[in-house]
Records
---
Amino acid sequence: MKLFKIILIALWRIWFYILISVPIIIMFPFLLITTSREKYYDAFFFLARIWAKIVLFGMGFYPVLKTIEKPVKGKSYMFVANHTSMTDIMLMLYCIRNPFVFVGKRELARFPIFGFFYKRTCILVDRNNVKSRNAVFQQAQRRLSQGVSICIFPEGGVPDDENILLDNFKDGAFRLAIDHQIPIVPLVFFDNKKRFSYNFLLASPGKMRAKILRFISTENLTQHDKKGLREQVHTVLLNELKKAT
């Protein structure tokens, strides 16, 4: 019985990568055009949201979104969320309509097909390289100045310890938000670890709850307030996760 379960999970996980790849192949000409210039980014983002929904619903995931405060169309934000699964990317795209750019790990660019467009549209970071981190900051500054929002998973990766609800946050998201005086929009993903964990056997179709929390203003804050802001956002997300456990 256990072997049968492992085979089913393995086939289901293979199906995940098929779902990621096939829509990209079908939409390839449109994706190529919409990623050729930054001025077409809104069109690309629209296609990316369709792709995300195909992956989520095709895997048997049922997103349930609760919104405490809704992002305003045409306004820039810093979107931050807890990070537990590859499906966090898709769920973020499902939840947010405002075009945003991901700041993400360079390693994901190695994935066939998906990686091609990932590196054309996202700001890639090599966390072991100081020059890379500085370049990321400059790119993010430029995109924010163009009126596009930014999405960062401030834990900097998925916690190694499965028992950790929320790892410590890195400074980047808060530094950028203060520099541009844009609100921070905290999101909580409650079920992604149990739906599609990096732990091979921890996976199942089902409900994916997400919650957009009340925005946190950065108005009149300076870089001296960065630590307090970071801790405030961490506490808000952690309390939500604790309430759900």
Note: The chain has a mean pLDDT of 92.
---
Amino acid sequence: MATNPSILLAEDDPNLGLLLAEFLKKKGYEVAWAHDGDQALDLFVKGHFDLCVFDVMMPKKDGFSLAKDIRATHLDVPIIFLTAKSMEEDTLQGFKVGADDYLTKPFSMDVLVARMEAVLRRTHSDKSLPALADEIALGDFLYYPAKMRLVFQGNEQKFTPKENELMKLLCENLGRPVSRSYALKLIWGDDTYFNARSMDVYMTKLRKLLKEDPRVQLMNLHGEGFRLSVD
């Protein structure tokens, strides 16, 4: 991947499309904006893209059909869907055609960028998004991802593999939201109710550990997920 990841944006709403394209460019992305599904497919065939962001409801070719056409020849390029629909069957259809993530309108542009960065990290592990350091300072904590350890004033806490994966994901997105759905799919494999309850238990334990330093905040974000930040 190039220094600046290349994004194919397909959004038929001219106002939202312009806002998204300009916002992503300011965040350091190269953006090609298509106004309908046919134009998006044409741009995809002619170019190279690290990630696709597709509106579902578009003229000429909807987002699901567009994704199917792309997946027929390119299995690896990640796809995030944007939609005004919130019905469960629409979400399921998105994942069946190969979605890597899914946002329902209206959404925060910062949340979209956080989702994009998380998907790019997962699919381009050696590319432009930086890997975690061997030692990460979080207030008075020192976190060692490879060793699965958290140290506070000389006291060491050993993480389980899932605790460590959650902590790594939070640190990769320090100061930015991490969606519940993405965390569940990435670490547990799916976002079932029982896995969600399991993740909540792990998050409660992490939050309890991090309370030793009040500057370190692991917050629940209603309707979004979690955010780790350091004041």
Note: The first strand starts at residue 6 and ends at 10.
---
Amino acid sequence: MKLIQSRDNAFYKQLRRLAESGRERRKRGLSLLDGVHLVESWERCHGPVEQLIVGESALAGGEVAAYVGGRDVTVLADPLLRELGIVDTPSGLLAVVETPAAKFTVDLAGDAILLDGVQDPGNLGSLLRSAAAAGIRQALLSPGCAAAWSPKALRAGQGAHFLLDIHEEADLAAFIADYRGTVAVTCLEGASDLFASEWQGPLAWVFGAEGQGVRPALIAAAGLRLRIPMPGAVESLNVGAAAAVCLFEMVRRRR
């Protein structure tokens, strides 16, 4: 166990660069996990984490202390951990892991979630979480999406990342053109009621940016345009909520 109390420590400087820079994380092929749940989820899928970082006060007792008991960890003074600013409320446990690459090429005949310019990392993580919970195994992210492996997206995903094949910088239009299932998108114009529409076979669900929605070219290419009926006096749903409604309507129908 090594205790770091100085901002001038070489390891801490490297850790801070990882925390502050997506470019640094991409260059080094590393991601940062915050919290016992994320670290535990990683270890179930990928095996033991080699680099664990613990806040000094977290070793005094509680969930973090119980999880890392007997393991070789690096301890950070609490002010240093807070200054990393990885998430708004640090859990007291960090892990540095190699960012996983997609294991497979895209499956043109399997269910998929396609994210078009989703820029909020919290929304992106929530969308991946709903997709994984609904049994989807591949996610394609267009250029302009938030970084899938950023700390905030990882925390929002709550381990979903490790259950999905995630393809970033994907050409969604090319995927849609070659897809052998049905492409479904939510929109208002020319759309059918989600709960009354019929479909079968594999589905690729397209969800768009928080403000702009799905690009018109992708809407035009979709074979199934759907709207979620909203009898209340509300104009729209958050993209994460809309996706959850659609994905679990798919799950309901397949049961």
Note: The mean pLDDT is 93.
